[in-house]
Design brief:
The chain is α+β, with helices and mostly antiparallel strands. It is about 40% helix and about 30% strand.
Length: about 270
């Protein structure tokens, strides 16, 4: 058994697509007050832009509940791409009748617990000191191999499933339970057990994990896509009994919506 006392405690990670979730409320009072012809003009000007961004890895969802009426999910190669989407939308007259109730910024993240343990074990066997040039070279080679192998997972298409569930989450940093003080090998074991549950739902739910440490108020964002929404409850409920969630997880607000083609925005805004 290797001891990694002087090794960095964080697992290696790979980052991919930049993701922005925009939750919107319709200013219904103002929208209904417009003449029918004006509403038609506004929608006619907005639809080409909405359809264009949908083609460029964006999706529109009709939200359920009081947290918003619409949710736009944007996947782009980088933050600049997200900035362009925001500006394109803000230029629309339609945007004057939509109010951002919430937003979330993150990047697709793959945590390499297993690869980290393997490369750390190899480095420890050779008594290689952390952060030396040889150490950095081997770490970068490991990351490059994994990045090439996982490219489709790092820059995914938005799954076509009709239902989406998004929520942010943290790992606990409390006085009695602190995820970040648990040894790397123990965290790797718990995450492997945790992943087994997700894999059992692989045929029913498409899951995309994104990291948001340093980007937004929570540490991770989770997107679940499925053909029918009750599977979200089943998966998340089962995971609550798993050690890593039961002991170390804290969850934010949940947003659930149904996929709607951008061309159908007029139907969602019909009065």
């Amino acid at each position: 058994m290797h001891h990694f006392d002087n090794f960095p405690p964080n697992p290696l990670t790979l980052e991919g697509s930049a993701i922005l979730h925009q939750m919107l409320k319709v200013r219904w009072l103002e929208w209904r007050a417009l003449p029918t012809a004006r509403r038609g003009e506004i929608l006619a000007a907005a639809l080409p832009v909405l359809i264009a961004i949908e083609t460029g890895k964006s999706a529109l969802f009709s939200l359920l509940g009081h947290k918003g009426d619409l949710m736009l999910v944007h996947f782009r190669d980088n933050l600049d791409g997200l900035g362009k989407v925001e500006r394109d939308l803000q230029k629309l007259a339609l945007w004057d009748y939509l109010e951002l109730s919430h937003s979330y910024l993150s990047v697709v993240e793959l945590g390499l617990y297993e690869s980290t343990m393997k490369v750390y074990g190899s480095l420890a066997e050779r008594s290689m000191e952390p952060h030396t040039p040889d150490w950095d070279k081997e770490i970068q080679e490991t990351l490059e191999r994994q990045r090439t192998a996982m490219q489709p997972r790092l820059f995914p298409e938005i799954p076509p499933h009709p239902y989406c569930c998004f929520y942010p989450m943290d790992r606990l940093r409390g006085e009695h339970k602190n995820w970040y003080l648990v040894p790397l090998a123990e965290r790797q074991r718990m995450m492997a057990d945790h992943g087994e549950i997700g894999r059992r739902y692989a045929g029913k739910v498409k899951q995309i994990i994104s990291g948001s440490i340093g980007l937004d108020d929570w540490e991770w964002g989770v997107d679940l896509f499925a053909e029918e929404p009750t599977v979200f409850k089943q998966l998340i409920y089962e995971m609550r009994f798993d050690e890593v969630s039961a002991v170390y997880a804290k969850f934010g607000s949940f947003f659930v919506g149904r996929r709607t083609a951008a061309a159908e925005m007029g139907t969602l805004l019909a009065v």
